Amino acid sequence: MNTNSRSITTSPAWQALAAHHQSIKTLHLRQLFADDPRRGERFTNEAAGIYLDYSKNRITDETLKLLLQLADEAGLKARIAAMFRGDKINITENRSVLHVALRAPRDGSIIVDGVNVVPEVHKVLDAMSGFAERVRSGEWKGHTGKRIRNIVNIGIGGSDLGPVMAYEALKSYSDRSLRFRFVSNVDSTDFTEAVHDLDPAETLFIVASKTFTTLETMTNAQSARAWLVAGLRGDETSVARHFVALSTNAKEVAKFGIDTTNMFGFWDWVGGRYSMDSAIGLSTMLAIGPEHFRGMLAGFHEMDEHFRSAPFAENLPVLMGLLAIWNTNFLDAHTTAVLPYEQYLKRFPAYLQQLIMESNGKQVTLDGGKVACDTSAIYWGEPGTNGQHSFYQLIHQGTRLIPCDFIVFGRALNPIGAHHDMLVANVFAQGEALAFGKTAEEVRKEGSPDSLVPHRSFEGNRPSNTLMLEKLTPAALGKLVALYEHSVFTQGAIWNINPFDQWGVELGKVLAQRIIPELDVKHAEPLKHDSSTNTLIRRYRHFKSAI
Ligand code: F6P
User: Fold this and answer.
1) Beta bridge partners of 179
2) What CA–CA distance (Å, rounded) separates 331 from 17?
3) Residue whose CA is closest, atom 3 of ligand 1?
4) Is 210 in the pocket of ligand 1 (CB under 6 A)?
5) What is the number of the ligand 1 atom nearest to the C-alpha of 275?
6) Which is deepest, 77, 159, 181, 294, by most CB within 10 Å?
7) Residue range 97-149, pLDDT digits in tens
8) Beta carbon of 209 within 6 Å of any ligand 1 atom
């Protein structure tokens, strides 16, 4: 390992932040708000229809100044330009990183290896639109002549989490006469439950896999083909009308038996976790229609342009990324909760887990050295208000500091009576309670017996961001996702790591391939794993042979 690598922790801004942290670490948000009655207006910013209130973070003007200096010292500006230019910034795979090209307008130009990729992007989008229209209108028929009523997306990781999150998020814009299911797990229960009530003659499978070699997806796709063919009287030719592929690997698609005219392609410069707006979004387009899908892309693009061009002090993804650095590296927060007060965003935290942790869960810098500080926080969350009655207790009164991102919309998609006011009142109340808490004196004044005072006091000083948008539309979803994508980029640039590879998932995959044949009860001994793994394998074989 290279021990001479440049470390951001030795930069003047980092050092200054560390010293600054020492001088303000006892400051309470109560004090900061009392000292500056306009704090809740000043530490905010609005762009692309997203209002970010970051005033409830444990920062001062000086903190912000130093964080912005840190971004400069890390060369963030040049790195953003390099990504948008199509430079091969994914250095361990020698690839460009161009999810931003997926939402570039038709007349845009981004050159990769001498080729403008934007027209190719739009060619695929047009093909997807044509196909989506045919399925949605009923023109595309199944093998027996019945129209398609069910769409099953088979994929995992980025080929599942984005599609399922977007489907759930945009359900109110979807064609309710179509039924959508998502199969990801190699656990056969996932597939079985997804198809148990479906008619094969009315079912379209979308096999979504960038590589088209992923064990889970290929296994589920084979089971889907067997289920379909069995349900259609053993007729293998039925596959042509019931399977489409989303992939970069035409050779493997053809080998599986899907006609490549029914394949929608993308490129190696689209990372799996950055692919929901590529062909991988076909299920989203089938659900909401091409026009709404393009609306979503326009939202992504608006945030891309903001990220690319806004001064850092007003740049939402940069601000969010820098605040994440502050919370992780200086306040020593290990996790961050994402708490959407919008039921349609129920899968958003799960989506962000892959986006953020597969990207920045790294410990090696771009030049091969070991990072000298913590990298990505652990992300998790659930929609509000549900989480309030579950894990918020720990956020309010536990021993750990857990910064929160609250997400809320000004208008409900399904307004009934006072529901939305109640929802919004709750999200505002949570941010307020976390920041300001309740002192022992306040508790006492309420008449609490002395013995209960410590239990009923809230320390407060717990940081949060609040993101507020007008309404959950396809464009709003695009903006939100792009906001987090670029915040991830910002953090990766500060830590000087590569957010675009994922070697860490390889070892487990390789070991699983080795173990699969060893689970056969007839597999010859000796097993050559550690004693724990060997014993577990033998125990499993015992269960198998008892069947
Ligand atoms: O195992 C991790 C991973 O490579 C993710 O990065 C990716 O999104 C997922 O697997 C699925 O890969 P594919 O789309 O190639 O099937």
Assistant:
1) 150
2) 11
3) 157
4) yes
5) 8
6) 159
7) 999 999 999 999 999 999 999 999 999 999 999 999 999 999 999 999 999 99
8) yes
